[in-house]
Amino acid sequence: MLDQMAIQVVRAPLRLSASVINRAGISANQVTVAGFILGALALPALAFEHYLLALLCIALNRICDGLDGALARIQGITDAGGFLDISLDFLFYSLIPFGFVLANPEVNGIAGAFLIFAFVGTGSSFLAFAVMASKQGIENPTYQHKSLYYMSGLTEGSETILCFFACCLWPQHFTTIAYLFGAACWLTTVMRIYWGFQTLRA
């Protein structure tokens, strides 16, 4: 829901940074992998309750995620790069709530499992439609420079990162945030399945 607005804000600085990185001979795939490693460091940080360090790792991951896309648009978008990017993104999204579960399994266990469960719904409906849209040749006018069809929803990347930031800043409220955001994710999943089915049937 907020992704379009966020893209407008960060597009120019990302393009400028990507041009500098490109001149240094760094590939988009290298930035993707480096970003995932930085993001994965949030897992032990969360497990040992270093929440501000985890927030920094999450922020660095998201910066790299923006940079790899901007780099890909300079160097050439590829299916392999798109596959790598989306695969590592979904792994990253799941490891954050798992980190909160490790920090306090008795309190955070069920809420964390519910949030990961909700991510399976948003992720599977997103990717399943992307595959079918590609087969049908359905164009996406909203995200023209993506390597696969990006289906919008109530909870997209921007909302997910804001959720993670809130969890890191107020870890004592993780269960409340996880249940609320998980419910929003399920609403997104239902909407995507309905509209995806109607679009493909038409």
Automatic annotation (TrEMBL):
Record's keyword annotation contains Membrane: yes
Keyword Transmembrane: yes
Pfam families reported for this sequence: CDP-OH_P_transf (PF01066)
Matching InterPro entries: CDP-OH_P_trans (IPR000462), CDP-OH_PTrfase_TM_dom (IPR043130), CDP_ALCOHOL_P_TRANSF_CS (IPR048254)
Gene3D superfamilies membership: 1.20.120.1760
Transmembrane regions: 36-61, 82-103, 109-132, 178-197
Keywords on record: Membrane, Transferase, Transmembrane, Transmembrane helix
Top-rank taxon, per record: Bacteria
Family (UniProt): Belongs to the CDP-alcohol phosphatidyltransferase class-I family.
Name of the featured protein: Inner membrane protein YnjF
Organism name: Vibrio stylophorae
